[in-house]
Amino acid sequence: MKASVRTIHQLVTQLEPVDALESEHRDQVLRWLEGTDDVFRRQKPATPGMHLVSYAVLSDPQDGSSLLVDHLNARRWLPPGGHVEVDEHPADTAAREVQEELGVTAVFADPAKAPAFVTVTETVGIDHGHTDVSLWFVLHGWRGMPMTVDLTEFRAARWWTAGEIAAAGPDVLDPHYQRFIGKAFG
After folding, report:
1. Potential cystine with 109: which of 3, 44, 85, 138 (Cβ 3.0-4.6 Å)?
2. Which uninterrupted H or E stretch holds 183?
3. Residue 37 gets which letter from DSSP?
4. Is the whole-model pTM more than 0.90?
5. What distances in angstroms separate CA 162 from CA 44, 77, 79, 93, 143, one per listed residue?
């Protein structure tokens, strides 16, 4: 197993699933990692058809809100994030993506920069037809923090309260976001 893939395998192995679905996703990801070194997207939009993504969930510890972006391609409100570059550490991807997409310097909630959640998702929107294996990282942020939203990727960015997240319809957010919030902040 390639060193970069072994690192990702270790990150996923250390995750404690919150529910049966995360446990299923974790097991699926571990089998995938054990069977291939081709885990990084090499060509847009979807080569290989299953590849790594890092989400950077900015959370305000004062009020428990989290920042989501209205993603043009996915047509849903998602955490900032993106594809893990070849041999890049997924935490570095999360930090790079919030810098590129929001102009924000990453401050990880976990000093070890470990992911808090793992999901396997068939994509929706314009580039549907591939599978994202997403590692979710929690970052500190705050309402009113200065940011420059990349309007080539997003319609908008806004802070969502726990109540707004709970009330969102099934096609509004990433399909795993409510479960993530329950695990990370519940």
Report:
1. 138
2. helix 177-185
3. S
4. yes
5. 34, 14, 14, 26, 14
Question: Residue 73 half-sphere exposure, CB side, CA atoms within 13 Å?
Answer: 12
Strand-pairing partners, residue 54, are 82, 135
| Structure tokens belonging to residue 101 | 């997409």
Residues in the chain: 186
pLDDT digits (tens, 9 = 90+) for 76-128: 999 999 999 999 999 999 999 999 999 999 999 999 999 999 999 988 766 66
Q: And the tokens for 47?
A: 């080569």
Adjacent-strand bridge partners of 81? 55
| Residues forming beta bridges with residue 57, ordered by sequence position | 138
For tokens 């390639």, the residue is 2
Q: Where are the beta strands (DSSP E) in the chain?
A: 50-59, 66-71, 76-78, 81-83, 117-122, 131-140, 154-160
Burial 33-69 (b: 16+ CB within 10 A, else e): beeeeebbbeeeebeeebbbbbbbbbbbeeeebbbbb
